[in-house]
Prior knowledge:
- There is one protein chain.
- By secondary structure, the chain is an alpha/beta fold.
- It is about 40% helix and about 15% strand.
- It has one domain: Spore Coat Polysaccharide Biosynthesis Protein SpsA, Chain A (Alpha-Beta Complex).
- It has helices at about 25-35, 50-65, 85-100, 115-125, 165-170, 180-185, 190, 200-205, 215-225, 280-290, 290-300, 300-315, and strands spanning about 10-15, 40-45, 75-80, 105-110, 110-115, 135-140, 150-155, 165, 230, 235-240.
- The strands form two sheets. It has an eight-stranded mixed sheet with strand order 3-2-1-4-8-6-9-7, sandwiched between helices. The chain has a two-stranded antiparallel sheet with strand order 5-10.
- Helix 8 crosses helix 9.
Amino acid sequence: MAKQDLNTSLPVCLFFFNRPNLVHKCLDSISKSSESFDINLYIFIDGPRNKEDNILIEETIEKINSFDFKNFKKISIKKNKENKGLASSIISGVDEVMKKYGRVIVIEDDLEVTNSFMPYMAAALKKYENQKDIGSISGFSFAIRADSNEDAYFHPRPNSWGWATWGDRWNSVNWEVDENYLNEIGYSKKSFNELGKDMDRMLQGYIKRKIDSWAIRWALHHWKSNWVALAPYKSRVINKGFGNEKATNTFIKNNFHVKLDTSNNNECFKFPASNYVMPRNLRIVNKYNSNMIRLFQRILPSPLWNFVSKKIYEYY
């Protein structure tokens, strides 16, 4: 199969830590999705917090080194000596790669991507590069029934499970978020929660240093800049980290019902012509992110949660 003409190579940041059992499934899915592209893969491995981490990280590195990277143009593997934490690891890793390419696709170790993930990301990055009110491209989507013939929709909330952006958007973020900064930008809890009722709760958790999240600051910058994010109706990503005790920020045991794109489509995506956010899609995504649904997700037994999650999809 001929390589896609992207003008320049497509850079991908991949972040690993202490879960060697996820390495090959994650890499294999990315490799299959990358067959038609010149991919420069930058792997970042965070340093250990303790002796147990050190052992698991060494196992993770062994898994990485044993993988066949034949479908990639270039491979770079970088291990941190010290533990930076997920937020600092992602910010510094994306900074490093962004300086070289001006755009980047970002994936974490607990994600598996579909065969159409890389074609979708490459096409969206090219199409919306010069539309400065579009902040990022999301590969993941909650289960939403499309009410048009388009493959994707816009939402003001970015998603951190397989995403992409451009240098001018990424470089404009102020990562030093505190109460003074919120006052400077005229922060409104009510307005920010229009991206989801959990947004202010997570932001306050970061400010009080109860959580270490780059994603909530990324979402805050989308809100401040009046940006929207593109998301597919059929998800190109599934998160396999739910219920894993070593997950950094995903402690909930039950994943959402997800409608995966199982096609091998690598061209002719039907993207929205405008950045209009349809009220229906806004309402559905916010329902999935509501505090009540998140509580149900946490406490319900898996079979019951699976039933509830599917009913949300069918009802909306």
